[in-house]
Amino acid sequence: NNHTAAQRWWRNLADELTPEQAQQSLTKFATGQDGRKREGRDGTTTAAAMFAAERLAPLPPTLFPVVVTEERIATRQAVIDWRGNRYSVPPELAATRVVVHQRLGVNTIDIATISGVVLARHQVAEPGLGVTIRDSGHVTALEAIALASAPPGRPHRKKERIPPGGDARAAAAALAGTPTPTTTVIDLAAYEQAAKNRNTLT
């Protein structure tokens, strides 16, 4: 059948056919070949009769346990790229080579060291979204390392979390169409003075 298809069908296939039209043509050709008589060890038979006699076993109810394994190099921010998204790893794996395992039919990935020790597991996102998925434990450990390596003293102004000022609140209120919020500042100096030398609550 393969030889006949290559010699008779492929050589006579029109160049202007689309892939869908070519598939339909091949299916029609192959169906017509099922009834052709051919000589076998047991005499004259057909491809359809041979197929019926094979009694193929049904497909298994579950997917074959295939595990896709690929190597990646973690970035200095302790993330790896996988199918168009990024996933976090423990900070000690930053800039090192890791191995990603994903079993077919499962929506999780395991990230392991080269020696095979699994150190991270994530729910996979839809491929190609460009999202970054971080484990909360990885984030905490990474922040601790960053703070430990930071120089002493007051942080740079760009790294401080400064609350919005009056102009910013007024602009936000104008955009939202709401009255400008007012801020009441309470001086706690008087309370501090009254609390000095007090040992009881009465």
UniProtKB/TrEMBL annotation:
Span of domain Transposase for insertion sequence element IS21-like C-terminal: 59-125
Source taxon at top rank: Bacteria
The protein's name: Transcriptional regulator
Organism the protein comes from: Subtercola boreus
